[in-house]
Amino acid sequence: MKYLIAAVLLLISMNSFSQKTYYTTDGKNRITEAEANKILSEQVEKISKVMGKQVYGNLTITNTETKKDSIISRITFTINYNKPEKSKNSGQLSAYKNKEFIKFDLNTLANEKFNSEQLKGKPTIINFWFTGCAPCVDEMPVLNKIKEKYMDDFNFIAITYEKKEDVTSFLKKHPFKFQHLVDAKDFIDQLGIKTYPMNLFLDKNGVLKYIKGGIPYERMEGEELKMGEGNEFIKIIEKLR
Which residues are in the Thioredoxin domain (predicted)? Predict the structure, then answer.
């Protein structure tokens, strides 16, 4: 019996050591930890040059799947325009998760007030962004496609701390078909949002159900990093509609 137990333990040990760890950005590709860090480093360097100032990158594991011979973790890359503080951003937002989202009354591009009560009755996606945020701009075409498909079932809101004039000028060159709420610095500070883009998903009762960064970039073998198709966001929308 002792020999049998020892053999079983040895087999388990051998299996665990034979498992390889991979990362994926889209559920299809497979990259190593070194490759994932290289991609993140390249994005940080690229965006820092475009912005003319240092930005910071985070690699976040959103899901892990264990198979017989491998461990596969799905990851997202997030760009932070301020040096990250330990869990400050996610901590403050997490306080609202599974609770009715904080009420707001913000300005539209038409100088009208938009109240959070107007969202009740439909699920909502709220996108936090600003005009100089490269990942924010990159995901806009994908968000526009999602809105086109689900516009009858969902509210699509975009919130920024920037002024109406700056947003209006930006939208002439970069179509972003959400309902825009501007000059929202106090509200954004109240939420503790420091990382962009940030996407929040509310159910039809205004309860915050999901907190996500930007749409994940994807990189297939032999190809350059590019914006994904938003499949993770679509799955959330399908759950909430």
Answer: 95-239
Give which of 196, 187, 179, 191 is closest to 132, Cα–Cα: 196
CA atoms within 13 A on the CB side of 70: 10
Q: Which residues of 92-108 are buried (b: 16+ CB within 10 A; e: fewer)?
A: ebeebeeeebeebebbe
- 3-state helix, strand, coil split of the chain in percent (to 5) is 35, 30, 35
Contacts of residue 196, Cβ cutoff 8 Å, sequence gap at least 6: 79, 80, 81, 128, 129, 130, 133, 135, 136, 214
> pLDDT tens, 75-127?
777 666 666 554 444 447 888 899 999 999 999 999 999 999 999 999 999 99
CB of 89 closer than 8 Å to CB of 79: no
Q: How far is CA 207 from CA 1, 24, 157, 159, in A?
A: 56, 30, 15, 18
Question: Per-residue pLDDT averaged across 28-36, rounded?
Answer: 80
Q: What is the pLDDT of residue 202?
A: 97
Torsion over CA: 224, 156, 98, 88 (sign) = positive
* Spatial distance between the Cα atoms of 161 and 119, rounded to a whole number of angstroms: 20
Interatomic CA distance for residues 59 and 24, integer angstroms: 12
3-state secondary structure of 136: helix
Position 155 confidence tier, pLDDT thresholds 50, 70, 90: very high
Domains of the chain (ranges plus CATH)? 2-80 (no CATH), 88-240 (3.40.30.10)
Closest of 142, 202, 206 to residue 176, by C-alpha: 142
